[in-house]
């Protein structure tokens, strides 16, 4: 599943169509995409893992799910879920969810929970975390209502950086450590973006998919953790378990 930084890259690549009129629309989605025909794109936005194409009175929300892809100014052999053709190119999406949101997009999204948005509010994240004291930190970090855009790669890397075991219970983690985790969720997301643009993201992974701890030279543990049962890679020696 593409994480927030990858969707920011999509936004940056698609911005060439801002202010352009859709001259042809097609796709195998159930959404009423015919209404996009002859409409002008006002802006492209992101909220976490959501890609948003904003028109005058509605917005198209695209979620790439687990295996979604896109192509700009080219097409795959398979039929796109949504295809938008402009005078200066085209934008095609595959294996994704398409929904139309009516009215003002700001009524749908809280931009302050998006870790890559200029309105990101870490203090709000802190308050939200305190409301779920008995949760495992691995589940809380993946909560899109608190850390929009953070996915499993970022979760693993942040917890490794902060020396925290993924099954640690929120209320048992010291306040300064929780503050560090919150900050790193945003910091690492921007580093993720930088590395991905340079096509070198994987070489910077220190925890995700790794088998040996770089700090301890001991075997990593791989386990499905928390209620979400997402894969965690961690060092039981240097990542403290707060329970």
Can you tell me about this structure?
The protein folds into 2 domains: 4-107, MutM-like, N-terminal (N-terminal domain of MutM-like DNA repair proteins, Alpha-Beta Barrel), CATH 3.20.190; 111-234, Helicase, Ruva Protein, domain 3 (Orthogonal Bundle), CATH 1.10.8. A 4-stranded antiparallel β-sheet has the order 1-6-7-5, with helices on one face. The chain has 5 helices and 10 strands, in the order H-E-E-E-E-E-E-E-E-H-H-H-H-E-E. The chain is an alpha+beta fold. The chain has helices at 4-14, 122-130, 137-141, 152-161, 175-197; strands at 24-26, 43-47, 50-54, 58-63, 69-72, 82-86, 89-94, 97-102, 221-225, 230-234. It holds the Pfam family Fapy_DNA_glyco. Keywords: DNA damage, DNA repair, DNA-binding, Endonuclease, Glycosidase, Hydrolase, Lyase, Metal-binding, Multifunctional enzyme, Nuclease, Zinc, Zinc-finger. This is Endonuclease. Residues 2-101 form the Formamidopyrimidine-DNA glycosylase catalytic domain.
| Strand order, largest beta sheet | 1-6-7-5
Number of domains: 2
Largest sheet: 4 strands, antiparallel
The proportion of strand residues reads 15-25%
Shape summary: elongated
CATH class of the largest domain: Mainly Alpha
Bin the helical content: 10-25%
Instruction: Characterize the quaternary organization of these chains.
Output: single chain
Distance between the termini: 30 Å
Number of alpha- plus pi-helical segments: 5
Number of distinct beta strands? 10
What's the CATH topology name of the largest domain?
Answer: Helicase, Ruva Protein, domain 3
Low-confidence stretches: none
Named at the architecture level, the CATH assignment of the largest domain is Orthogonal Bundle
């Amino acid at each position: 599943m593409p994480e927030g930084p990858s969707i920011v890259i999509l936004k940056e690549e698609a911005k060439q169509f801002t202010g352009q009129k859709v001259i042809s629309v097609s796709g195998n989605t159930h959404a009423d995409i015919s209404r996009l025909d002859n409409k002008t794109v006002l802006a492209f936005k992101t909220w976490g893992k959501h890609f948003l194409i904003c028109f005058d009175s509605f917005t198209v929300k695209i979620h790439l799910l687990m295996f979604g892809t896109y192509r700009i100014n080219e097409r795959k052999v398979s039929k796109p879920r949504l295809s938008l053709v402009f005078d200066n190119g085209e934008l095609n999406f595959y294996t994704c969810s398409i929904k139309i949101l009516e009215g003002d997009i700001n009524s749908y999204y809280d931009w302050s929970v998006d870790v890559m948005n200029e309105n990101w509010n870490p203090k709000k994240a802190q308050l939200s975390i305190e409301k779920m004291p008995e949760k495992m930190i691995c589940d809380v970090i993946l909560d899109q209502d608190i850390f929009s855009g953070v996915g499993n790669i970022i979760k693993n890397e942040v917890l490794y950086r902060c020396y925290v075991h993924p099954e640690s219970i929120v209320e048992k983690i010291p306040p300064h450590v929780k503050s560090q985790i919150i900050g790193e969720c945003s910091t690492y997301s921007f580093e993720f973006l930088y590395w991905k643009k340079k096509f070198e993201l994987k070489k910077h992974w220190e925890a995700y998919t790794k088998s040996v701890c770089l700090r301890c030279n001991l075997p990593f543990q791989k386990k499905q953790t928390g209620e979400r049962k997402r894969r965690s890679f961690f060092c039981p020696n240097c990542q403290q378990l707060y329970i």
